[in-house]
Write a structure and sequence with these properties.
With about 160 residues, this protein is an alpha/beta fold. It has one domain: Rossmann fold. It contains five helices and six strands, in the order βαβαβαβαββα. It has a six-stranded mixed sheet, with helices on both faces. Helix 1 runs parallel beside helix 2. The termini are far apart.
Length: about 160
């Protein structure tokens, strides 16, 4: 099975009185995620569902991707800051997907999950995605099948 880990798009700094959970995507972050959604739809990765952190910027990212991919979004606590592999793996197994899942979350959690699954060290920047193939999603049982840099992916779009 394939799992795609997607770091939320670039977010605005917290405003006075606003919590980190309430931060929203910046204009640039929204623009980049919209462009990446077009590319992901074209790539046809077999994504059947998006799981997202409950934080606002992650939910916005997930919704923008889901609109273009035409898939449902589930807000799950397992992708909130502090996310780790074990609870995410239990969630993946509970879904029993036929295709791929895409999970939207935060750094350093996503990088840590990639490292635990594959042994590879990854620092994911905003709107970057990692693809992992695994049969069990247990520590050391994953293969990194792709690291998708947003700046390079956007260059695939004509007239950019």
């Amino acid at each position: 099975m394939q799992l795609y880990l997607f770091r939320h798009g670039k977010a605005e700094p917290a405003r006075p009185g606003e919590t980190d959970a309430d931060r929203v995507l910046s204009e640039e972050g929204e623009r980049v995620v919209r462009r990446l959604a077009v590319i992901l739809a074209w790539m046809d990765l077999g994504i059947e569902r998006i799981l997202t952190s409950p934080y606002r910027r992650a939910q916005q990212t997930a919704e923008l991707l889901a609109q273009r991919l035409n898939v449902p979004v589930d807000v799950v606590h397992e992708m909130a800051p502090g996310a780790t592999l074990e609870p995410l793996a239990r969630l993946i197994h509970a879904y029993r997907p036929r295709g791929a899942l895409l999970a939207v979350g935060h750094q350093p959690d996503l990088g840590n999950i990639v490292q635990e699954l594959t042994g590879g060290r990854v620092e994911m920047k905003p709107a970057e995605m990692a693809g992992i193939e695994s049969g069990s999603f247990r520590s050391g049982r994953g293969l990194l099948i792709g690291l998708y840099d947003p700046e390079h992916m956007i260059r695939l779009l004509p007239n950019q």
